[in-house]
Amino acid sequence: MLSGIPVIYGIKPLESSTTPAHELGSVGYASDGRKFRYCQNNVTNAMVAGELQQARVEDTGEQSILVSTSASIGDTVVTIASVTVTANQYENGYLVATGEGGTGNGLYYKIKS
Q: pTM for this one?
């Protein structure tokens, strides 16, 4: 059952932090009713108040990746081959598993870290 998107009240929309304070994608409302989405910024690009922000460019090298070992029922770790990632890069994202060659319905798994 879906529980909805987490909602944050009384946020400070111009405040930044080096550690996550909320789940990515959470909706926040300022005291005057303005609506914001909690996001992560690329540390190499400073955010400027009043400027439109966009998500990072899609990395097509991270699609259709083969798993390097066969998974068993109950496994909670997936090891992939030939991709370099940083710790927690996919935290709060999703892993979509399909059959060989992209066939099948696809199963979504929430990534913890």
A: 0.54
